[in-house]
Design brief:
3-stranded antiparallel sheet, 12-stranded antiparallel beta barrel, globular, Lipocalin, about 10% helix, mainly beta
Length: about 325
Amino acid sequence: MKNYQLFFFAVAVCLLMASMKVSAQCCAAGNPLSIAPEVQRSGKNELKVSALYRLSASDTYYDVDRPIDISYVDQSGFHYTELGIEYGFLEHLSFKVELGYFMSKFETYLNPDFDDKVARGLADMNLIGRVDLLRQPSKSLHLSATAGIKLPVGLFDLTVDNVRFPVQLQPSSGSFRYHGGLVLAKGLFNRKLTSISGVNIEYSKRIQSKNFDYKYGTVYNLFVGGAYKLGSGLSAILQFQGEFRAQSKRENEQLVEASGGTILSVVPQINYSFDRGWNAHMAFSVPLYRHYNSIQLGSKYAFSLFISKTKNLKASAFLISDKTEGLN
């Protein structure tokens, strides 16, 4: 089987699994955290346009770390898309803009007297700067840093028929969220294997809107793994990820008891680089360990599909110039 056929076969299998009633990651307000952080940034004069699809759902409550039966929410989840544009301004610096949109964000209930809730709309805008701190090609060593802010440009304070939607169903987070991170990559065994590790932190400002006085807990995300080259353009990646989320707060600094916790997950991924700068990346996350504060809807798996196109604008300009001169 050719490499591109293997990639699309893996995508089809994961989409089939994701369409089953076995559920996925629980809802969260605003743009969801990535389950597969990007390692490579755009080089100087390179423009990258990307599209992301993310599927998530949940139907299981957990009391700390054990599943329990509660007759309330039947299904909760979302279908999320994101458009990204990144440009490399300097040899070691790039800037990226991401804009998210929820095609569907929902909760359905077991009690027929409760009306199901569905929200759609613009999420947040993410502005990201990425810089190389260390790059040693001879040693296949690369250390990069990111810093950015998520702007609540989308729909928040959503109400339908005078019923206020809960914060986890709002398309936008309603909060300014600041984030930063480090990623370290090291090539091994003649670059057939690349070790990848990193850390990300996200801090949210307090929301003070018409319907909410709320502050999300700070999130710490750690990951470590490796990428192995299977063939021309095709790589398999195995990553372990830890998410540590502090408890949220209501008005008067009251802790939201049923918020925050720890999730340790394994994230198998596959990446395929096509010709002409096209790239496709698929990730599938499965929790290995979870420890929630109080009773919460828990995650079972998450799925994402990322497609990008990279073009060197300077090289394209030279090509156009050469063709123009040839006509004169």
